[in-house]
Amino acid sequence: MHHVVLERWSRGNTFIHQRDPRAKIAALIVFLVVVATAHGELTLLAAALFVFLSIIAVWARLPLFGVMARAGVVLPFTLVFAAIAWRPALIPKTYLSAMAVLIVVATTPLPLLMRGMESLGAPRFLLMVAQFLYRYLFVIVEEGQHMVSAARSRGGSFRAAAGALAVLFARSYGRAEEIHRAMLARGFPGYFRTLGALRFRAADGCFAVIASAVPVLLRMTIG
Amino acid sequence: MTPLIEVRDLRFRYDDGTLALDGIDFRLDTGESVAVLGANGSGKTTFVLHLNGLLTGAGSIQVCGLAMEKRNMATIRQKIGLVFQDSEAQLFMPTVLEDVAFGLLNRGMRADEASDRARAALATVGMVSAESRAPYHLSAGEKKRVAIAGILAMEPEILVLDEPTTFLDPPGQCALAELLMSLPQAKILVTHDVPFAEAMCGRAVFFEKGKIAADGDVGEIVERFEWRFTLPVSAGGAGRPRGASPPGK
Question: What is the ipTM of this complex?
Answer without folding.
Answer: 0.83
